[in-house]
């Protein structure tokens, strides 16, 4: 009838979280954008050629296949890349010309044109 509660083991100590060091260098998306931008191919760069270029640049493609695929898909979804052939993360990709043209100068030019033509002068 007399039950004794088990004693808490003193061996359990709060574990400290060991933080991994941050990766140095550009992200996969940045590497892909640089590779596609450097290409002079009219029809774009194929996914296989992208992976070969990443591997030549020192990136371990075999270990990070999923990262490369998700990076390609997200760049297409954002509009940074345009998919010329294929679906998903396969096919050919090239830079979106509309996205590169829409840089900073357009808003400044629009603001300057509004100021110059005031109808109340």
Describe the structure using short key phrases.
single chain; 121 residues; mainly alpha; three-stranded antiparallel β-sheet; 5 helices; 43% helix; chromosome; WH_DNA-bd_sf; double-stranded DNA binding; nucleus; structural constituent of chromatin
Number of helices: 5
**What structural class do the secondary elements suggest?**
mainly alpha
Share in β-strands: 5-15%
Mean pLDDT: 81
| Basic shape | elongated
Poorly predicted regions are: none
**N-to-C SSE series?**
HEHHEEHH
Q: Can you count the beta strands?
A: 3
The description of the largest β-sheet is: 3 strands, antiparallel
GO molecular function: double-stranded DNA binding; nucleosomal DNA binding; structural constituent of chromatin
Family: Belongs to the histone H1/H5 family.
Organism: Sander lucioperca
Main location: nucleus
Describe it:
This protein is mostly helical. Helices cover 43% and strands 9% of the residues. The chain contains 5 helices and 3 strands. It has helices at 28-38, 47-56, 65-78, 97-101, 105-116, and strands spanning 45-46, 81-85, 92-95. It has a 3-stranded antiparallel β-sheet. β2 (81-85) and β3 (92-95) form a beta hairpin. α1 crosses α3. The N and C termini lie far apart (99 Å). The mean pLDDT is 81.
